[in-house]
UniProtKB/TrEMBL annotation:
Residues 3-117 form the Response regulatory domain. Transmembrane segments: none annotated. SMART domains: BTAD, REC. The keyword Lyase does not apply. GO terms for molecular function: DNA binding. This is Stage 0 sporulation protein A homolog. GO terms for biological process: phosphorelay signal transduction system; regulation of DNA-templated transcription. The modification 4-aspartylphosphate is found at residue 54. It comes from Alkaliphilus peptidifermentans DSM 18978. May play the central regulatory role in sporulation. It may be an element of the effector pathway responsible for the activation of sporulation genes in response to nutritional stress. Spo0A may act in concert with spo0H (a sigma factor) to control the expression of some genes that are critical to the sporulation process. InterPro entries: AfsR-DnrI-RedD_regulator, BTAD, CheY-like_superfamily, Sig_transdc_resp-reg_C-effctor, Sig_transdc_resp-reg_receiver, TPR-like_helical_dom_sf, WH-like_DNA-bd_sf. Keywords: DNA-binding, Phosphoprotein.
Amino acid sequence: MIRAIVIDDEWYNLEEISDLIEKTSFFYISGKYQNPILALEEVPLTEPQVAFIDIEIPEIDGITLAEKLLEINSSMIIVFITSYNQYAVQAFDLNAIDYILKPIKKERFYRMVEKIKNEIAFRAQFKLKTLKIKTFNHLNVTIGDLPVRWERAKAEELFAYLLMHHGSYIHKERIIENLWPDHEPEKALQILQTAVCKIRNLFSQIKNMVKLDYSGSRYCLVIESGECDYLEARSALSNYKTNDKNTFDAVENVSKLYGKGFLIEEGYIWSMEKDQEMREGFITALNEIINYYIEEGNSHKTKSALKQITRLQPFDENPNYMLIKMYIECGDNNAAFNHYHWLERVLKEEYDTVPSERIKAILNFDK
């Protein structure tokens, strides 16, 4: 059932509307209020999916109340039930699903209920077809809340390879050479064709989002819509401009997600060059961003960017030294020691080494 709240300062209207709602057997009333402030405060408890709101109510008008409810949950469905028609434009500016005048006519009320049912069904269908692709660390593709079940490792690898070349047509012989060089040409071609069929079947329900084209013995993968960290990173790096602050946030935000690297846990030989290329791109951009923030005197932003570089390249002494030094200079010794201990662990586990004497010295460790 759909959770709903009802807000009307007149108790008889409140009860009438609540009674109509309950008789639909579609809604569960999780809260009904004559006090709009209380309704707002109790949203975390009632968790409404739909709010039925009178407009002319004391303390806070219904339009303002709806704005505040949408600030808490932008997907909440709003229905205005009022005695006044002059607020209709404002109501629909808020994307209210309906605007019903009192006295309520049952036929009109049930038309509104059908609107809500259709809207919720549409949203559920849309949610099931939301595409998310994650490539940092390992490949993870979901449609709605469900992970894609590749079944064939070759199909998964082909998808990842074509995604790396997003928007470009790649000759099938080049694909075979990079992905399956140890197979006989005829067998490799069969594997390629089977993998292509598997990919097309997996994404057949969202053809408008994922397109796998074939032309002139070449394949091209295009993600028309959805979320993809690799494409976000590629866009952030290509749009980045030195000394243009408007391009900084995209680079910094994506670099935070990069983790150990592009498809690094999949073990694909062919993705290693791309991983290194992207890593170097982030480090170059972040170094320039750091210099910009230092000149600007923005220590908070400088520390944030330094932290990202140390995650991307923990063995580089300079950014680690600069970050720890900045923590100490601003009196945040806990952050300085926490970073040192993180660095010590990572260097030991991944590089079988220890932090430099220079870094130890700034923290007054014994050499």
